[in-house]
Amino acid sequence: MRAKRSSFIAAALALGGTISVLPGTARATPIDYIFGGTGTGSLGTTPFSGSFTVTEFGDTSAVVSSGFNFLNFVSSATFSAGTLSATLAGSNLVIDDVTAPGAIAFAQPALLDVEWLINPAFETYDLKSGFATTSGALSVAPEVFATMSGSLRFTEITSLSFTATTSGAVPEPASMLLFCSGLLGFALLTRRRRA
Description:
This protein is α+β, with helices and mostly antiparallel strands. The chain has one domain. It has 2 helices and 15 strands. Strands 2, 3, 6, 7, 11, 13 and 14 form a 7-stranded antiparallel β-sheet that branches. Strand 13 (144-147) and strand 14 (150-166) form a beta hairpin. Helix 1 packs antiparallel against helix 2 (173-194). The protein is globular. Mean pLDDT is 80; it is low at 1-25 and 174-190.
């Protein structure tokens, strides 16, 4: 019995390894889009001054092309400045404008609030891979963003940079379905042999 269970587990692991390297298998890669800057403003009624970070947590499989833009509606976004931190409310979006001179932004589309960073390096970026820290010119006056802790108001942004980091790929639901089907097949085969 123990030998059969061990061979079943080994076969399942082998199948899982095979599925993970099948060519054309859809893979979702978690990606963090990080906007770091310096500026002044307030979160709710608490002022901040100096360094801040807006981090948007997304997935490369959610990136879509919209003509001259690449868009990713992220799963969550956070703001931090010193001891202040907040989760951005509602829908949050990263926009990569690939037309010259190239720009990238964090945005809340429902409020039409967007903060742009301009640099020609973004003309060839598609939001689907890591990106080294890049700074550039700012194109929009500071905006107000909704958070779970009140309004995030930027009074002034004096510098802004962008970085993207990715972690390990995660199988898409179709790959997981194929993997689970293989496990079910092995279970049925084992049961049939037993009978």
